[in-house]
Amino acid sequence: MKYLSEIYRLVISLSFVFVASGPVCASDSVSVAGQSLFSKDKHIEYIVGSSSVIISAPHGGRLVPASIPDRKNGVLLADGGTDRLARDIAQAFHRQTGKYPHVIICHLKRLKVDCNREIKEAAQGSVEAERAWTEFHQYIEQARRAVIEKHGGGLYIDLHGHGHPEIRLELGYLLSNLELKGEDGKVEELRGKSSIRKLADDSKASFAELLRGDSSFGALMKERGFPAVPSPEFPHAGEEKYFNGGYNTRRYGSRDGGKISGFQVECPGKGVRNSKKNRRIFAKAFADAVTVYLKIHAAVGVGK
Ligand SMILES: [Zn+2]
Questions:
Q1: How far apart are the first and last CA of the chain?
Q2: How much distance in Å is there from the Cα of 16 to the middle of ligand 1?
Q3: CB within 10 Å: which end of the chain, N or C, has fewer?
């Protein structure tokens, strides 16, 4: 039996080599956790996961092919280092849990395509940019199907970088800063508007606790050396700038129902994205915080 399973594994890995040349649908894919699938032109990468966690990095790409015209309007600034950071998190997560998160990375620079906007603003008429955008989202959908099939539900994180002066993480749950300024009792009424609605339904914690209490993701990151808003320390962003979640968080979180909750993470440059060493330290803390957060709030944890 052992011999047969070895042969089976060999066939699987050989098949992978031959099928990994284009965006692969769930029906014809052979998933090998930890390995990368690429779209045909290599603009989009999908590191296949085995856990209940999905991470996407839409703004860290560095490729600027001349065949795609520069975007003319919208936000054009890249989130430097978030492509590498997503990969570092995947490796740290694997070292800690023995499982991989599903990771989707756009390697095109944001000047060419914005995978955190609807397609019109994202691609601005370029067929090639539209194709990359479509492949990015197809891979996320593929990861979502795999997570639901294997684990019944999961967590989606859209990874970004901000340039605001405050050196802290900004966690976006689709609630505005004004809404976060409300008392806990008032905040409790907002669970249905948030991108972690499903997780709030499953967790024993109150919604305010899940959002900014001692077991919130913000608190867990602060404990590991990375202050965050919202958290017990910063229940809201005060009068400072704050990103509360974009297109991907709306599309892939659980605000409109669904089994996968999600939030946006905006990382500062200083101390997180600005060196290889800082990225590694952050990745370790982040992977650990995700694991603890899911252990506390989700029955399935990081996966079966
Ligand atoms: Zn971004």
A1: 24
A2: 31
A3: N
CA 298 to ligand 1 center in whole angstroms: 27
How far is 209 from 205, CA to CA, in rounded Å? 6
Q: How far lies 33's CA from each of 23, 90, 146, in Å?
A: 16, 11, 11
User: Tell me, what DSSP letter sits at residue 35?
Assistant: P
Q: Rounded to the nearest whole angstrom, what is the distance from the C-alpha of residue 191 to the centroid of ligand 1?
A: 24
CA–centroid distance, residue 4 to ligand 1 (Å): 46
Q: Is the distance from CB of 282 to CB of 85 less than 8 angstroms?
A: yes
Contacts of 3 (CB under 8 A, 6+ apart): none
Peptide bond into 268 cis (omega under 30): no
> 237 C-alpha vs ligand 1 centroid, how far in Å?
18
pTM of the model: 0.90
- The pLDDT tens digits of the residues spanning 35-87 come to 999 999 999 999 999 999 999 999 999 999 999 999 999 999 999 999 999 99
Q: Which of 265, 178, 276 is nearest to 226 (CA)?
A: 265
At residue 172, does pLDDT exceed 60? yes
65 CA to middle of ligand 1, Å? 20
Q: How far apart are CA 175 and CA 294, in angstroms?
A: 21
pLDDT in tens, 281-297: 999 999 999 999 999 99
From ligand 1's centre to the CA of 120, what distance in Å?
Answer: 17
